[in-house]
Design brief:
The protein is of the alpha/beta class. The protein contains 17 helices and 24 strands. The protein is globular, with a radius of gyration of 22 Å. It comes from Streptomyces gibsoniae.
Length: 481
């Protein structure tokens, strides 16, 4: 037996690029074993992956954990959101999964919004206005472009659903991941038959939505995994909801996640309904809500600017009045899908380091603008911001967030928060606790708190002014001819 105080649980993070597995002591939160295996994603116009490689990666990562995985009493899957998995009568993929970042369904998204009666109705019904990330738009794209695949489909799943079903043999999902499909109505917490009819999707193809805290099933004895037969399987959830569990979020606590794209979110007791579509009104994994906004340009865009300047990403300098909007991939928040990067205020004495700092400023300005839309009016806007993701340990990111927010910043030491959140959900099955309470008992947000500094209102106002003045340029559609 492992040197653990309590039962062991397994938390899984099946992301776009890899599967990560943690075996965790349910009593203390100590990670006793870990494994990881990569995925591949297609390049070109679409972003697709064969779901079977997610299963192979899960098996490989679990085997890396050795005997500890065999001793686990419960397991939960956290997975990338929105992906469309189509299965045939034998449970095999009809075609590769369409991933969240496959945006070929943008025309179908616009059509669906119009056909239901506009953005306001979508927000009131589902909590969100579907863009091309949402699963419902991907199904509509598939029906239009590959009708033979639709005819062969006998089950429709999300990525985490697919893995959970291969563990249990039962088709299930949870409210957190279901809320990112576009066909789950947050107002009634059920599948929306009118939207399903609009998209041409038979509700019989969808998984059962299990309740928070409910056992989704047990590990069946039909595959070569290092689990004991009868190991409990939790509902699982989408990656952002899993990370929220991993942080043990209480309502009103703000999270800034610095990755390739940036996300900001907070748990709320109020059901979000933003008709502009800026805030996605997701459900969380334990009965509340998880309003979330996303910016497309974050660490990858700033790193690209550093590379162009020939600088290390930390080589920033202050003192300039230059503005750089790093909208290298268009932008989602603010809603400028056709924008490109914009530089204003360049002088003879502007240094490369000052340009790099301006890129950080531009990215964080977008994130903080999104955060203002996510937080409830009664949220404590002086409490520490939780900074997570790949950029969270970068000094330049930390200092820029502090300076432009005027708030203290806390950087949790825990790194694999999606897998930890899944592990907390698995632990909740054993102890009867709310998974967020489990994570708080594990002290997952433990880490340094950087004190607040005076908010840099001058820089914020300058960026807002340039953004406003440059609107005609940033909104202009590119000439395709």
């Amino acid at each position: 037996m492992s040197a653990a105080e309590g039962p062991l649980v397994v938390g899984v993070d099946s992301s776009t690029q890899s599967t990560k597995v943690l075996v965790v002591d349910a009593s203390t939160g100590q990670v006793v074993a870990a494994g990881q295996a990569p995925h591949t994603v297609s390049s070109g116009a679409g972003r697709e992956s064969d779901p079977r490689q997610w299963w192979d990666a899960l098996c490989e990562a679990l085997h890396q954990c050795g005997e500890a995985a065999h001793e686990a009493a419960a397991v939960s899957i956290g997975g990338q959101q929105h992906g469309l998995v189509t299965l045939d009568a034998h449970g095999d993929p009809v075609r590769p999964a369409l991933l969240w970042n496959d945006v070929r369904s943008a025309p179908q998204a616009r059509r669906l919004v119009e056909e239901l009666g506009g953005s306001k109705i979508w927000a009131e019904r589902t909590g969100s206005v579907p863009g091309p990330s949402f699963t419902v738009t991907k199904w509509a794209w598939l029906a239009e472009h590959e009708p033979e695949a639709v005819r062969a489909t006998r089950a429709v799943r999300l990525p985490h659903d697919y893995l959970t079903e291969r563990l249990t043999g039962k088709g299930t999902t949870d409210r957190g991941d279901a809320s990112g499909t576009g066909w789950w109505a947050s107002a009634t917490e059920s599948y929306d038959e009118e939207i399903l009819a609009l998209a041409g999707l038979d509700p019989a193809l969808l998984p059962r939505v299990v309740r928070p805290g409910e056992v989704a099933g047990t590990v069946r004895d039909a595959h070569d995994l290092p689990f004991s037969k009868g190991t409990l399987v939790a509902p699982g959830t989408g990656d952002n909801a899993a990370a929220a569990l991993g942080l043990g979020l209480r309502p009103g606590t703000a999270v800034l996640s610095l990755g390739t794209s940036g996300t900001v979110y907070a748990v709320s007791k109020r059901r979000p309904t933003d008709p502009t579509g800026t805030v996605a009104g997701f459900a969380d994994a334990h009965g509340d809500w998880l309003p979330l906004a996303c910016t497309l340009n974050c660490t990858l865009a700033v790193d690209r600017i550093a590379t162009l300047l020939g600088l290390d990403r930390e080589a920033v300098e202050s003192g300039a009045e230059v503005t750089l909007l790093p909208y290298l991939d268009g932008e989602r928040t603010p809603d400028l899908p056709h924008a490109s990067g914009l530089l204003h205020g360049l002088r003879h004495d502007t240094t490369a380091g000052q340009l790099l700092q301006a890129a950080y400023d531009g990215a964080v300005h977008s994130l903080l603008g999104a955060l203002d839309l996510v937080l409830d009016a009664d949220a404590d806007r002086t409490a520490p911001l939780l900074l997570i993701g790949g950029g969270a340990r970068g000094t330049a990111w930390q200092q820029t967030v502090r300076r432009l927010s005027g708030r203290p910043v806390q950087v949790p030491e825990a790194r694999e928060l999606v897998a930890l959140g899944a592990a907390a959900q698995a632990a909740g099955l054993l102890t009867g606790e709310d998974p967020a309470s489990v994570a708080r008992r594990w002290d997952t947000t433990r880490g340094p708190v950087l004190e607040a500094v005076e908010r840099d209102e001058t820089t914020l106002a300058r960026i807002s002014g340039v953004l406003s003045d440059a609107a005609p340029l940033l909104e202009r559609e590119p000439d395709r001819h």
